[in-house]
Amino acid sequence: MIIANLIAYIILIIGGLNWGLVGAFNFNLVSSIFGAVPAVGSIIIYILVGLSAIWLIISPFLTNGKLYLTSRNRD
Questions:
Q1: Tens place of pLDDT per residue across the chain (75 aa)
Q2: Are 69 and 11 in contact (CB under 8 A)?
Q3: Which site among 5, 36, 37, 63 is 20 to 30 Å from 29 CA-CA?
């Protein structure tokens, strides 16, 4: 579960930076990498960002309100 949480955080940070670029500079990094037409790669990236957000919402409910990022903070 720790690995899934870390991967979800990394994906959400990338997605947040992309939306920050869209808001501040009207520059979509994902579209510039995969092309302006919605390509399979950009669709996969957007789906992964959405799934990561859902995972980080659900994960604390599965672990009694705690979100584990390292093995040291386990009781």
A1: 889 999 999 999 999 999 999 999 999 999 898 887 778 888 999 999 999 999 999 988 888 888 888 876 555
A2: no
A3: 5
Contacts 24+ apart (CB under 8 A), 16-22: none
Q: 53-67 b/e with 16+ CB inside 10 Å = b? A: eebbeebeeeeeeee
CA dihedral 18, 19, 21, 25 (to 10 degrees): 150
H/E/C letters for each residue in the chain? CHHHHHHHHHHHHHHHHHHHHHHHHCCCHHHHHHCCCCCHHHHHHHHHHHHHHHHHHHHHHHCCCCCCCCHHHCC
